[in-house]
Amino acid sequence: MQEYSTQPSPAFSRRQFIKSSTVLAASAAAAASFPAVLRGQSAQTINAVVIGMGGRGGGAGKNFLDAAKAAGVDAKILAVADIFPEAAKKGVENFGVPADKCFSGFDAYQKALDVPGVNYAILATPPGFRASHFKAAIAAGKHVFMEKPVAVDGAGCQVMYAAAEMAKQKGLKVAAGTQRRHQAGYIETIKRIQDGAIGDIVTLRAYWVNGGPIWHRGDVGSTDLERQIRNWYHYVWLCGDHICEQHVHNLDVCNWIVGAHPVKCWGMGGRQQLTGRSGEIWDNFAVEYEYANGVRMYSYCGQIKRDWSSVSEGAAGTKGTSDPSGRIQPKGGEVWRFRDKATDAYVQEHIDLINAIVKGTELNEAKQVTDSTLTAIMGREAAYSGAGVDWDQVLNCKFTYGPDLLYKDCAKMEWGAFRTLQPPMPSQHNIFKNPPMVPVVGA
User: Fold this and answer.
1) Same domain, 143 and 205
2) CB 52, CB 121: distance < 8 Å
3) Does one domain contain both 392 and 315?
4) Do 329 and 224 fall within a single domain?
5) Whether residue 149 sits in one domain with residue 108
6) What is the CATH number for 283?
């Protein structure tokens, strides 16, 4: 393992940045953001399938319908899919989907994608399944909206990069749930940063520090595999740890500003308030990243009860500082703030995708969201192992956290016994030198 210097770049004065948030607006504002040529005269009907009917799947399905309604574009949800039957049945109540088009089981996503007329897939299952489902949706010729993160290890990212290229070759449109990329305040502010408003970037910082412990649903289910999937947030093979599942948003903003991904990192973290509970994820990480141009990014994420919390990003340059969500402070100059209204970013990301489909414009966010996901994975493995980690090292690592069938053919997975990893401990959990036992699905 290579040794890295941890001497930071010149620091900037630490300030409390404004907490990033989406800006809600009326549906009329959403309609206004759509080109007039599209409103009321869509070139085709957008027929969607929702794969994953948990809280985010139900929300994304509604966001899709709101976006289409505001734009005057014909749109329907023809089918839904979920591993669990009770979740799949929500398609009837939530979206008026016929009961025989509410599919359940590990192969439910395939059945939904095969429904005639479907041309838009919403992927919202636990992240461990994202790469396989995205690959299947692109192979089936569907435009895709997918939630973040999009993988949990390097092998999953390899699947994602290949499918992203396939989507490009097929002319398919892809949007990701990194909604800050569709939020007007971020878009305008980062454009100004990249145009030189704060000079050359010196350092970046990213926070996802919540004021309380992450939720835990308890152990429910008749098998280890079912208990883990029902409580997916607490298993690395399903969520990628919270540095991937949530902090990926902030890391994505920093990558966006630089226009690249980091090349190496080192970090630390631990499992404190979750001690004694089932699961294996940590509840805090601190990672220092370095980009190829020498810029450092300081990343903190935690799910531990505390008085201070912040979900935000910051950038410091040679000529000033910025809160990328909508504020720039030039040295010796007046503060600039973004003040325009914008649509709900969760709706706007679907508006942008529908816009690209109807107008035939370019939109493929698969690579950038995979880059940001791998950034989070790299930070996680640096903390887990206690060693410096390179980008290519993580991307090309053969170790996978999930079952053997997860990337080969997850539709063939079955309920059964399941061996899982123990909570990772620093220096004892190193997937590059002495990987732990790979979990497998048994009979």
Assistant:
1) no
2) no
3) yes
4) yes
5) yes
6) 3.30.360.10
Quick count: other Cβ atoms within 10 Å of Cβ 327?
17
183-186: Cβ within 8 A, 24+ apart: 183/22, 183/23, 183/325, 183/342, 183/345, 183/348, 184/23, 184/338, 184/340, 184/342, 185/23, 185/325, 185/326, 185/338, 185/342, 186/20, 186/253, 186/324, 186/325, 186/326
- Name the DSSP class of 269: E
Separation CA 155–CA 264 (nearest Å): 18
Structure tokens at 108: 């439910």
Domain containing residue 404: 196-341+373-412
Q: What is the pTM of this model?
A: 0.89
What gap in Å lies between CA 251 and CA 270, rounded to an integer? 20
pLDDT digits (tens, 9 = 90+) for 313-355: 999 999 999 999 999 999 999 999 999 987 799 999 999 999 9
DSSP 8-class letter at 78: E
Q: What is the CA radius of gyration of the chain?
A: 21
Helix (H) or strand (E) holding 6: none
Under a CB-based contact definition with an 8 Å cutoff, are residues 315 and 201 in contact? yes
CA distances from 289 to 45, 194, 296, 326, 383 (A): 44, 20, 6, 24, 12
